[in-house]
Design goal:
mainly alpha; two-stranded antiparallel sheet; two-stranded antiparallel ribbon; 24 helices; 4 strands; 54% helix; globular; disordered N terminus
């Protein structure tokens, strides 16, 4: 690492040490609890994978937190960093989003605005239509301020939908969530229960579910909290709704069976938000923790993430409660939860299968392979090929066309979308163009350098895969480059690496 970077990091560490010390202890304690509970679910037949090497960990954490692969400079700096706690320190650097740090000042905020937008609009069928910047701008404002998760949800639930919106406060942009749900109480009931409470009640909309505990009456009692969003006409009495094909009026009631205590002048959605984000809500913190755990480890502690079942190991249920308690105790600080998860051995294990017990992803004995989101893949391509989008918000730009072609993938361990992405990359003119000597400055400079072929191959591996090649890989590509036109052959190696499964998956 360059001397000035070491000096800057040293000064920053000294400045932050007093304020971070207590928080670090809480993070370390929760990370240890994660590993203790995960190991308790293994029994005698599970042999966990070893911890990932530095290159594997850094690429994984970079994709998860910054939404792209690291630059070749960032990768070299991390690999050369000999501090014992460098993994924690680099995670902290990305999360901190220091405005004076050109590498990471916007990376976390921009990436997680994509992540939250994808979650909020999942299953609405509006991922493409509502990929405009409005919702992401609202999310970026909250993420930049590190607003607590409870505040974010509360603001979303109480978003003004009439003419008294204040754009300066981001009001109106979050209304995209309501538009995506067609301003229908039944759609909003299903979406908010799944997203923020971790329960699936849509199946009870028309009839009592034969295998689940939720009844049709409970569904419409919950939907009654959204009667004030109807686009036509005036809403009826506060918190009352008529379900289709039923003559009786159903009154609002929370999913835990409690009746709302209406305050003078309070609306239905603010009342719901107050109940939902209360510290004693049995669903709220667990649902958030489970969703974030699934994001970082591919599978929820209660899986599927939005439909907790009863067949999960008791240790996982205990861990879910531990994490939810820590999350609530730290005022729903998402970054606190991220720090604890990424500091755990469960997150830092290798993805290589080295034991039969690794086949079950619910045991978290290794890191599963995960498909990249469209944003992660394109932004990683842009990083590797030095592409700069002059109009990033334009639907007709290269990025806009790519995102429109590949909608967000809800289950990251389902590789169907990744396979389609791979086929697209292999046959796409954009990739062919960006991996050419004429359009790629790094490639052209590398081809002209007076250095060994092995060194050039190593540089390409760091640019694309964020690691150095293994000896057999280096030997194979060196032979290929040296037996023909070296410049053209280097471009071929670059193209092959960009189209490798290792590049299009998080591992």
């Amino acid at each position: 690492m360059n001397n000035h970077r070491w000096l800057a990091l040293g000064v920053l560490s000294l400045a932050l040490a007093p304020s971070l010390r207590a928080a670090d202890r809480d993070v370390e304690a929760l990370a240890a609890k994660i590993d203790e509970r995960v190991a308790a679910a293994w029994g005698q037949d599970v042999k966990p994978a070893p911890l990932a090497g530095d290159a594997e960990f850094f690429r994984r954490a970079h994709l998860d937190l910054a939404g792209r692969i690291p630059s070749v400079t960032e990768a070299r700096d991390f690999l050369d960093d000999d501090r014992a706690d460098k993994r924690r320190l680099w995670v902290e650097r990305i999360l901190r989003a220091d405005p004076d740090d050109p590498s990471y000042r916007t990376a976390y905020v921009n990436h997680f605005s994509n992540v939250w937008r994808a979650w909020l609009l999942a299953r609405t069928g509006q991922q493409g239509q509502f990929r405009q910047p409005a919702l992401e701008t609202w999310l970026r404002q909250r993420l930049k301020a590190n607003a607590g998760y409870d505040r974010l949800v509360r603001e979303l639930l109480t978003q003004p939908l009439g003419g008294n919106q204040d754009p300066g406060r981001g009001e109106g942009s979050a209304a995209v969530f309501y538009q995506a749900n067609e301003l229908k109480p039944e759609n909003l009931a299903g979406s908010t229960a799944r997203l923020f409470l971790g329960v699936t009640i849509e199946c009870a909309q028309c009839h009592n579910h034969p295998f689940d505990k939720w009844t049709r009456t409970q569904f419409w009692e919950y939907a009654a909290f959204f009667t004030d969003v109807a686009p036509q006409g005036k809403p009826g009495p506060r918190g009352e709704i008529k379900a289709p094909n039923q003559d009786k009026t159903i009154r609002a009631r929370f999913l835990d069976g409690k009746e709302p205590q209406w305050k003078d002048g309070s609306g239905t959605r603010p009342t719901l938000a107050e109940w939902m984000t209360a510290p004693d809500n049995p669903y709220f913190a667990r649902a958030a923790v489970n969703r974030l755990w699934a994001y970082f480890l591919g599978t929820g502690l209660a899986d599927p993430a939005d439909r907790p079942g009863d067949e999960r190991p008791a240790a996982h249920d205990a861990l879910l409660n531990e994490l939810a308690g820590g999350f609530a105790d730290h005022k729903y600080d998402v970054k606190f939860l991220i720090r604890a998860i990424t500091a755990s051995q469960a997150y830092q294990r290798s993805s290589a299968v080295s034991h039969p017990s690794h086949k079950d992803p619910r045991l978290f004995a290794r890191m599963p392979l995960r498909g990249l989101s469209p944003e992660q893949l394109f932004d990683s391509l842009a990083e590797a090929t030095e592409y700069q989008d002059a109009t990033p918000g334009n639907a007709q730009s290269a990025r806009g066309q790519f995102l429109a072609r590949f909608p967000a993938q809800e289950h990251k361990t389902d590789y169907q979308t990744s396979i389609l992405q791979a086929l697209y990359l292999m046959n796409n003119e954009f990739i062919a163009d960006r991996s050419s000597l004429e359009k790629n400055r790094t490639l052209a400079t590398l081809a002209e350098q007076r250095t060994s072929t092995a060194r050039k191959v190593e540089s390409l591996y760091l640019v694309v895969l964020s690691r150095k090649p293994r000896p057999e890989e280096s030997e194979r590509f060196v032979k290929y480059v040296e037996k023909g036109d070296p410049k053209k052959a280097l471009a071929d190696v670059f193209w092959v690496l960009l189209n490798s499964p290792e590049f299009i998956l998080n591992h």
